[in-house]
Design goal:
This protein is mostly helical. Helix content is about 75%, strand content about 0%. It is built from eleven helices and no strands. The longest helix is centred in the C-terminal third of the chain and has 25 residues. The radius of gyration is 18 Å and the shape is elongated. The N terminus is likely disordered.
């Protein structure tokens, strides 16, 4: 996809919220090659994985000049992917924080599942999670990528745990539930892509909904 990047197409691949936030500071007219390459990497990771997100593919998608790669990213492809993981993680963290503003934690988690469901449907089940795309690979030559993915998951878990603590659950139970929500979403997204169906995510969402409703109701009645 030659430059200028179709931000509608990027939105289809990586989610409207991520792109909307990036576009606030990067426009097709004023973006520089560095921003375009990072954003393109975020878009490509969910579909092609870390090993398939080559410099050539990023350049073709972003339209950035080849000579700018090592000027902006002296660490090469590893640095580019690492920054893309951080960017995607930060924006999804922001989305989580927005969802957490609701007074109902069950409603907030329901909305998180809906976001991933929309992402799958809009991409015709091609786009998964860019963080998982990096985490599932061995990354033997670039272990920092695995560490960056782990750090993103930890931030998401902490955000969910803080929400549950605010609504009366213990710290330990909240951390377990936060981890469980993330594992359920990410596992279901992978299954949905394989089955080309939202059924696994819908099932996970329903079970998490009931589990959280029971845990919070039980806490209030204790």
């Amino acid at each position: 996809m030659p430059y200028p990047i179709s931000y509608r197409e990027v939105a289809r691949l990586v989610g409207r919220i991520v792109v909307a936030k990036v576009v606030e500071r990067v426009s097709p007219r004023k973006s520089d090659s560095r921003d375009r390459m990072v954003l393109s990497t975020v878009a490509l990771l969910p579909e092609y994985g870390a090993s398939g997100t080559s410099i050539d593919r990023v350049l073709a998608h972003s339209g950035a000049p080849r000579g700018s790669v090592y000027h902006h990213f002296p660490g090469g492809r590893t640095q580019l992917i690492d920054e893309a993981v951080t960017l995607a993680g930060d924006f999804i963290s922001g989305l989580i924080d927005t969802k957490m503003q609701t007074g109902d934690p069950v409603e907030a988690i329901d909305a998180f599942f809906v976001m991933w469901r929309d992402r799958l449907v809009e991409s015709d089940f091609r786009a998964g999670c860019p963080i998982v795309a990096v985490a599932v690979e061995s990354n033997d030559e670039a272990p920092q990528l695995t560490r960056s993915a782990a750090a993103v998951f930890a931030r998401w878990q902490e955000a969910f745990a803080a929400l549950f603590v605010r609504h009366g659950l213990t710290g330990e139970r909240s951390r377990r539930l936060g981890s469980f929500v993330i594992a359920a979403v990410e596992g279901a997204v992978i299954m949905c892509r394989a089955e080309r169906s939202t059924a696994p995510l819908d099932a996970a969402a329903a079970e998490i909904h009931d589990l959280l409703a029971y845990a919070l109701r039980d806490r209030r009645e204790a």
